[in-house]
Design a protein that fits this description.
The structure is a single chain. A ten-stranded mixed β-sheet has the order 1-2-3-4-5-6-7-8-10-9, covered by helices on one side. The mean pLDDT is about 95. The protein contains two helices and ten strands, in the order H-E-E-E-E-E-E-E-E-E-H-E. The longest helix has 13 residues. It is about 10% helix and about 20% strand. By secondary structure, the chain is of the alpha/beta class. The protein is globular.
């Protein structure tokens, strides 16, 4: 592969509306690949990537044909990022929009402080996933680790498997018709046809932490 600075500069200069696809070969696990893209370009990375791949993405489609290190799609604004392997910790951290799909498992703190992104994980997620998640949706087709949804705000969390335990202020919710429609749309966007909304459990905020109250001091 060319020097990383040159590669990122080439991708960032991609013309708006361009349908020309880019294919990066032999990434060698380098960090910060395909970051800061702000045009609807299509980038495929053949291999594993390091920290913060596809970070600060806006409008682009980035496909990782391998595993991703910590912080993939961090602070994404829009567009689509697809990891065809596993993702390490903090996948989709602070992301404000767009769609993140992980075919394998995601590590700890998946979706930490997410602010509007939609994340679908076909496998499992690690401990403290969706910690301080503010808005958006996290769909877990496998199991979730400890302290799931800790200090949750208004994000919607859908889990098909088991949850080790829930974090502070996260609780099981009754799924409304609107929730089912949203979940079915996310499954469709992820290309998942063998699951339905009925297979999942919804978790959301108990809303006890919005304002300090001495009766709830034990959960802070």
């Amino acid at each position: 592969m060319q020097p990383l600075r040159e590669v990122n500069a080439l991708l960032q200069a991609g013309r708006r509306g361009s349908q020309h696809p880019y294919r990066l070969k032999n990434p060698r696990g380098q960090h910060a690949i395909a970051v800061g893209l702000d045009a609807p370009v299509h980038v495929t990375i053949e291999g594993n990537v390091g920290y913060y791949a596809a970070g600060m993405n806006k409008a682009a489609t980035v496909i990782v044909e391998g595993n991703a290190g910590p912080g993939v799609a961090e602070n994404m604004m829009s567009g689509r990022v697809h990891v065809k392997g596993n993702a390490s910790m903090a996948a989709g951290a602070t992301a404000r929009g767009g769609f993140l799909l992980i075919d394998g498992d995601a590590g700890a703190r998946c979706g930490i402080s997410m602010k509007g992104v939609d994340i679908v994980v076909r496998g499992n997620v690690g401990h403290m996933s969706a910690f301080m998640a503010q808005s958006g949706a996290l769909v877990v087709c496998g199991d979730a680790g400890e302290a799931f949804g800790d200090s949750l705000y208004e994000a919607r969390l859908f889990v098909r498997g088991t949850v080790t335990n829930l974090g502070a202020d996260c609780e099981r919710k009754d799924m409304t018709h609107e929730d089912r429609v949203r979940l079915e749309g996310l499954l469709t966007a992820a290309g998942i046809a063998d699951m339905s909304a009925e297979d999942f459990t919804l978790y959301g905020s108990a809303r006890r932490l919005y304002h300090f109250h001495v009766d709830h001091a034990n959960v802070y």
